[in-house]
UniProtKB/TrEMBL annotation:
The keyword Membrane applies. This is Olfactory receptor. Putative odorant or sperm cell receptor. The gene is LOC110138589. Coiled coil: none annotated.
């Protein structure tokens, strides 16, 4: 199967907020603030996780991967959004759209699975503490992360390639801020029921199944936490797990509302706000959620800042 459709248009016009032009400046300013915040916050988490020996554990190995993933995720769409919102040129080349489609969905699919792996790590740490070091060995952690990346790539390459084969019948206008699979399916002409069905089935495995596993893990964790007699132990367990749960709901909520319904039934503005949420807001908030609710990360950040100022 060819990766791109030979009858494709030269470029796509991204309408963005054409029906609400007053939104363009506020969204541009928000992106201009949140994008550097997301990059700096996630870089800080990667640095402290690598530099502080106390954070050399599976939990922070997965958190480092999540931070790197969020940086790639938001970078796959925000620079182009800023360009389109800040200038009168509202277009993206067909090849640029295809590249964005692949990268955006690789990151999204991988994050779905990585969040499930992180919940499994917390389940083992709290419910099977005596077997934790035996189960979550470095080799197993690397294998789990590699599997999430390979699965995310497989999903994106297959779904994006099938979507790019759809006939567009001369249409080159996308009512969106970015190139995203549901919007391209909605824009395509001809019979696309098979594409909608395929997307729904695949997204059940990438969204619904991991979310169910996460909820089951946290049900077991909650049961185990209430058995802990130490108040300090309970607080630490809840602090660590609540950070992850907040991130899960921030990411899965918008993604499920976008991908577990037929693209033809998606409202006009829903894709724009959902893409802003799971592609921009969530990566920007994640570092703060994990930092503010985690004493170890706050302590490591404090030590890093002190060492920087002392060296200066």
């Amino acid at each position: 199967m060819e990766l791109i459709n030979k009858s494709h248009p030269e470029e796509f016009i991204l309408l963005g907020f054409a029906n609400r032009p007053w939104l363009e400046l506020p969204v541009f300013i928000i992106l201009l603030i949140t994008y550097p915040m997301a990059m700096m916050g996630n870089i800080a988490i990667i640095l402290v996780s690598k530099l502080d020996p106390r954070l050399h554990s599976p939990m922070y190995f997965f958190l480092t991967n999540l931070s790197f993933l969020d940086m790639c995720y938001t970078t796959s769409i925000v620079p182009q959004m800023l360009f389109n919102l800040g200038t009168s040129k509202k277009t993206i080349s067909y090849m640029g759209c295809a590249v964005q489609l692949y990268f955006f969905h690789i990151m999204g699919g991988t994050e779905c699975l990585l969040l499930a792996v992180m919940s499994f790590d917390r389940y083992v740490a709290i419910c099977k503490p005596l077997h934790y070091t035996l189960i979550m060995k470095q080799r197993i952690c690397i294998l789990l992360v590699a599997t999430t990346w390979l699965s995310g790539m497989s999903y994106a390459v297959s779904e994006a390639t099938i979507t790019l084969q759809l006939p567009l019948c001369g249409h080159n206008t996308l009512d969106h801020l970015v190139c995203e699979i549901p919007v391209l399916i909605k824009t395509a002409c001809g019979e696309k029921g098979a594409n909608e069905l395929t997307l729904s089935v695949v997204c059940i495995f990438f969204l619904a199944v991991p979310l169910c596993l996460i909820l089951i893990s946290y049900a077991c964790i909650g049961h185990a936490v209430f058995k802990i007699k130490s108040l300090e132990g309970r607080k630490k367990a809840f602090g660590t797990c609540s950070s992850h749960l907040i991130v899960v709901f921030l990411f899965y909520g918008p993604a499920i509302s976008m991908y577990l319904q037929p693209p033809s039934s998606i409202s006009r503005d829903q894709p724009k706000f959902m893409a802003l949420f799971y592609g921009v807001v969530t990566p920007a908030l994640n570092p703060f959620i994990y930092t503010l609710r985690n004493k170890d990360v706050k302590g490591a950040l404090g030590n890093l800042m002190r060492s920087i100022f002392i060296s200066k």
